[in-house]
Amino acid sequence: MTGSRICVGAIAGAYGVRGEVRLKSFCAEPQAIADYGPLWSEDGRQFTVTLGAQVAQGFAARLSGVASKEQADALRGMRLFAERNRLPGLPDDEFYHADLIGLEVFDTGGQSLGRVKAVLNHGASDLLELVAPGKSGAILLPFTQAIVPTVDLTAGRIVADPPEGLIE
């Protein structure tokens, strides 16, 4: 995927026998995923999305060109992307996860803590997964204003003030 596209959802599998899919939305307003179309797959296919009923963890949805249960099943696990310019602008203190991945993280003293490998969310709040040369495992850094006071997308860096003992 190019930097001009943002992951907005994923296909969880077929829904029924007529080609509908179970669509999981990653959007702040889940139903808005249909407004950002057309959506693109990682392999370059383009889909228009028509949302149906809300189902567990997403929506039943119809994708253009998908007419059978077998075709819908074949899309299981596929991530869907929207053009960045179709997405809403964000306030100064909010960021698309894709913009954070790859940024170098420094402590308040200027020492590098690592690079953002992923942004995780398991319910409570976002975590930045950092990888650092010489460290055997990943570092999980809570992505809160208190711990991450500065995100400078222009400079490609994040300044963090982790609590003592979090990073050894």
Query: Any idea what the shape is?
Result: elongated
Per DSSP, the total helix count is: 2
Element string (H = helix, E = strand): EEEEEEHEHEEEEEE
Question: Low-confidence stretches at least 5 residues in length (pLDDT < 50)?
Answer: none
Q: First CA to last CA: what distance?
A: 35 Å
Report the top-level CATH class of the largest domain.
Mainly Beta
CATH architecture verdict of the largest domain: Beta Barrel
Short description:
6% of the residues lie in helices and 42% in strands. The protein has 168 residues and is mostly beta strands.
Element layout with pairings:
Elements: E1 5-15, E2 20-25, E3 39-41, E4 46-47, E5 49-55, E6 58-63, H1 69-74, E7 79-83, H2 97-100, E8 104-107, E9 112-121, E10 126-131, E11 139-142, E12 150-152, E13 157-160
Parallel strand pairs: 8-13
Antiparallel strand pairs: 1-2, 1-7, 2-6, 3-4, 3-7, 5-6, 8-9, 9-10, 10-11, 12-13
